[in-house]
Amino acid sequence: MLYPLTFRPLFKERIWGARNLERLYAKPLPPGHIGESWEIVDREEDQSIIANGPLAGRSLSWLMQNDGEALLGRTKDANGRFPLLIKLLDCADVLSLQVHPPAHLAASLGGEPKTEMWYIAEAQPDANLFVGLRKGVTRAEFERALQTGTVADLFHRLPVRDGDAMFLPSGRVHALGAGLVIFEIQQNSDTTYRVFDWNRKGADGKPRQLHVEQSLKSIDFNDIEPSLLPRNTTHQDSITVRPLVNDPLFKVEALTSVSSTALPMSEPRLRIFGVVDGAVSVEAGGMSVNVAKGGFCLLPAQVAEARLHLQPNTTVLHVTAD
Known catalytic residues? Predict the structure, then answer.
């Protein structure tokens, strides 16, 4: 019988990272510039390990192989793997300008499609996103700007603040600016094609690899000046609900409590809860799991009659997949 699951995070050193995941969420970071915390992942080279209950020490891959139907329910897997990859990102410096290949081209380019969304947990006053292209930019102009090192000028820039969110379908060219801490929900993929990397050098002192040919084939050049996701909310008893993403790959909404409340989760479906602010507990399968700010809990589809308990002024990203 499955139960609400938590996992040990996997920390990734990045040239653009820092120590903000330690400051904000008390993550036990190793030394270095830590840019990513992979919170839920099922990749051949990277595996989430269950941290709680009778299955502690087992990998997410093991769970998929041994109890995948109970874990996923009606949710489709990703070629036998868990379909989503959940991360926290600490962007102390700007990331490379990049794109992920669309589904119809990914295999021919030797990669995997990746649709994702960002929820901004913390933004410095001058923080911005680079997303899509400015109005009037043509592919020919884009290719010329790659040669002159001015391609960043052709990107659509969006100033952002805490609580903003952006949807990034495969093919949308993008970069995270400096001064951001992000919750990232994405397809289970690790294919990124770098278009431009600000002429910076990697840890080995050499320029990081670019993927210009693959990028030009992947970029949607009709994707002009996309907008942030709306902040519209509805009220349900003592919480507000903000719909964010409704995509065939995953759905995301932000739940914010006004006072202490308990939400029933009776429909048998895969759910993930990510705590942006405050704290929650997830009660199901005869167990109760406490999740602090910056933490995640996976509720398997088999676990019915669950309850999500939110403390006052708590914001949770509620992720489901079909």
Answer: 194
What pLDDT is stored for residue 1 in this prediction? 81
Q: Which residues contact 213 (CB under 8 A, 6 or more apart)?
A: none
Complete DSSP assignment for 14-35: EEEEESHHHHHH---PPSS-EE
Taking residue 318's Cβ as centre, other Cβ atoms within 10 Å add up to 19
282: closest CA among 314, 258, 250?
314
Binning pLDDT at 50, 70 and 90, where does residue 288 land? very high
Q: For the chain, what is the total number of helices (H) and then of strands (E)?
A: 5, 23
Nearest to 75 by CA among 269, 304, 297: 269
Give, in order, the Cα–Cα distances in Å from 107 to each of 71, 100, 191. Answer: 28, 12, 11
pLDDT at 236: 84
For residue 203, pLDDT beyond 80 = no
Give me the CATH code for the 234-320 domain, please: 2.60.120.10
Which pTM was predicted? Answer: 0.96
Strand partners, 207: 201
Domain 7-218 architecture? Sandwich (2.60)
Domain 234-320 in the same topology as domain 7-218: yes
Domain layout of the chain by residue ranges: 7-218, 234-320
d(Cα 173, Cα 156) in Å, to the nearest integer? Answer: 10
What the block records as the tokens of 266 is 């009776």
Cα(234)–Cα(55) distance, integer angstroms? 37
Given phi > 0 = left and psi -120 to 50 = alpha, else beta, which region is 237?
left
Q: Has residue 202 got a pLDDT over 80? A: no
Q: Are 256 and 232 in contact (CB under 8 A)?
A: no
pLDDT tens-digit series, residues 164-173: 999 999 999 9
Residue 189 makes CB contacts below 8 A (sequence gap 6+) with 85, 100, 111, 112, 113, 114
Cα distance between residue 87 and residue 73, in whole Å: 23
